[in-house]
Amino acid sequence: MKRVVIIGSGIAGIATSLRLRKKGYEVDVFEANDYPGGKLTSFTKNGFRFDAGPSLFTMPDLVEELFELFGEDVNEHFQYKQKQVVCNYFWEDGMTFSVDADAQKFAQDASQKFGIAKNKITNYLNLSKKKYDLTAPIFLEKSLHQASTYLSTETLKSLIQMGSMDILSNLNQINTKKLQEPHLVQMFNRYATYNGSSPYKTPGIMSMIPHLELHLGTFFPKGGMQNITNSLFKLAKEKGVKFHFSKKVKRILVKNKMAIGIETEQEKVMADIIISNMDIFSSYKKLMPKENHPERILKQERSSSALIFYWGVDQLFPELDLHNILFSKNYQAEFDSIFEKRTIGDDPTIYINITSKEEKNDAPTGSENWFVMINTPGDYGQNWESLIAKAKQQILAKIKRTLGVDIEKLILTEDVLHPRLIEKKTSSYRGALYGAASNSKFAAFLRHPNFSRKIKNLYFCGGSVHPGGGIPLCLLSAKIVADQITEIKTT
Length: 491
Hints:
Layout: E1 3-7, H1 11-22, E2 26-30, E3 42-45, E4 48-51, H2 61-68, E5 80-82, E6 85-91, E7 96-100, H3 103-114, H4 118-140, H5 153-160, H6 171-179, H7 182-189, H8 210-214, E8 219-221, H9 226-238, E9 242-244, E10 249-255, E11 258-264, E12 268-270, E13 273-276, H10 280-287, H11 295-298, E14 305-314, E15 324-327, H12 331-336, E16 349-354, E17 367-376, H13 384-403, E18 411-417, H14 419-426, H15 443-446, E19 458-460, H16 471-484
Parallel strand pairs: 1-2, 1-13, 2-9, 6-15, 13-19
Antiparallel strand pairs: 3-4, 5-8, 6-7, 10-11, 11-12, 14-17, 14-18, 15-16, 16-17
């Protein structure tokens, strides 16, 4: 049986292992950490359970598909529910708004709240859907680096309508033009952070991102976000995938321009196919230092990173739903000096996720677990100890101004994740959450392909390569890789 070695057990690595196992390969996954999931993991501290990484779950069909590949009933392994309230928004001027999961109700509510004609909001959402429907089959579901992708009616149809995709304007310009009302513009500018970019730089085509929430829906897995990882990891083991934890890969072995295996600190492992789920920058610089590197790709601007405070607090607002967003028009000015002006735009957010609202066992009785995140630049040598202390005080002050509560004295336990630690734990260069930023109209084409052009039998999956970061795109990268690898013929 032919053997595949996958470097890294992030969600894309696990999904790739399942798809190739189904194709008949012997699959071994090597992971430097002692747990699976990469960024999509969790931890407990003083009785509180925290989802450590991604907190937004969309397109659950991509998870279901992996169970269906093996004829499994997904409900026996993985369960989730759709959220009726997508987000709660708070502004310092006293404005608040809850986003209903139903797009029509959202449009009606927003029209009444912000004094803008309902048809303007509906037209915006319809255009968001149109952009997604036209581009997803090409930019998300197929390799952009193979000629066959461009020899289809879907591609031709999309190219004909490229003029309506708003690629020549940035997202903020499109939102300002079409929505006009400042609060709504801020709301829809926030979607740029979904791929670690700036609304003032990323092209207007990214206005398709709201479609994921307002048409396709947002969901919450039973057992928390970690259960996406746990359920797929369990399935992979049951189907014969072998996982090797605390086995850091030092080098990809290349002979005559062909990947032939890996070297860990303990051994050399030969394989027919090598797939790196490691950040593309680290894949080349650390695992293949002597090979020719695609420097143009590796030198691209990195996406934003994050500073996350995990707070266990005395219960504050039992009536608040999951996901709370806090805005401030002048908030960026407060952080410019802190983060040395390596910022993502003029209106960043504090993102608060309280999973104990969904999972009663995530916090002790009478308490809540708060996931409090702000987007930050990556690690460029800043003094993070100082920055964390300053940022924390400004976050606490903003929460107090906005919600009228001094949360600091209610914090029972705390943990912190910052760009330098993100890089250490996940090998993501500079702690970037999504690899390269999407601040260019050509960004989709400049991401590294899911295969090596110069080294045979070497492939790549995960958020730092095509089609991009985030759970759905990582799962799609696994699908693209598997589609490029031939199924083993059985007799």
